[in-house]
Amino acid sequence: MDPVIVVGAGPVGLTLALALARQDVPCVVLDEGPGKDEPRPARTVVLREDTAALMERLTGLSLDHAGFRWAGWRSMRRKQVTNEVGFEDAEAAPLHIAQHVLTGALRAALENERLVKIAVDSRLDTLEQERSGVTAHTRGASGTWWRGSYLVGCDGPRSTVRKLQDIRFPGRTAVERHAVAALRTELPWQDEALLHRSPPWRTSGPSAGEIIARPLPDEVWRLDWLLPPGKDLVTPEMLLTRIRETLAGWNGGTVPPYELLDTGVHTVHHRLARRWRAKRVFLAGDAAHLLGALGTHGLDEGLRDADNLAWKLALAWHHGPHEALLDSYQTERRALVASRLRAADQALPLLRGGGGLRTYVPGSSRSLDTLLMDGHLGRGALGSPGTYADSPLAPGRLEGEAPVATAPGATVTDVIVTAEDGTFVRLRDRLGRGALLVVLVAPGTGVWERRHWVSAGIMPRLAAAVSALPHRAELLVAESYPGAAAHTVLLVRPDGHLVTALSGVRPADMYAAAETALGGPANGTASKAGADAQAGAREDAGPGHGEAGALSAASQAAGHGPLQCRGTRPPAPQHDHPTRRTPALPRPARPAPPAHTPERPLHADVHIVATG
Question: What is the C-alpha separation between 516 and 520, in angstroms, rounded?
Answer without folding.
Answer: 4
